[in-house]
Description:
Layout (H helix, E strand, L loop, with lengths): L1 E4 L2 H8 L11 E9 L5 E8 L2 H10 L1 H5 L6 E5 L4 E6 L12 E9 L4 H17 L4 E8 L5 E8 L2 H19 L1 H4 E11 L6
Antiparallel strand pairs: 1-3, 1-4, 2-3, 2-9, 5-7, 6-8, 6-9, 7-8
Helix pairs in contact: 4-5
Amino acid sequence: MRLTVVDRRGFERGQRKWAGLLGEPGFRGQGGGWSRARPGVAHLFGFWESRAFYDSFMARSHDRLHASQVGTYRDPRVRLFEYRFDVKTGFQPVFTDADLLRVAHCRVRADRVDHFVLMQEKVWNPAMAGSPGMLRGVFAQAQSEDEFLVLSMWDSAAEHGKYRTERVERLALRAQTGADIAALAGDVIDLEPAWTV
């Protein structure tokens, strides 16, 4: 979820109410924070065991938890993605040891989807997994099949900065990313510990 916050104090106060997710069947974790590039933009990432558990939560409890944040934000964008594979190993939706999140939302050309997924597995994942400071991540796909999300968690902005400076351009050429991707929206997010559930 990405949204523009118009009442920061009210939004943050309401965000604490989401601790109520802990009792929800199938809930695995939630975290998020503030965009470094876009003032007032917040990102939230929620993880569920299955779409059925998520749908059940939306039908039963969502409105009660959400009530305290009504009117504190605008322009919400909510997207659902299914887990494909880990970036590094053993992904867990744990945010307590991370300082920074990096998200890439990719629309891939229909005839390049298989190549894009292969390059994520064979080029990007090993490069990120071998980067000091990269804790874990997840690669996920939307139902539209040409839309993907790559979320990585980092222990510090400094380590993420080294990875970007040293490697991204070279890796993009090797993976032929320009030929695969029709549109890319990314962001770097300072994790807000109080939002972690």
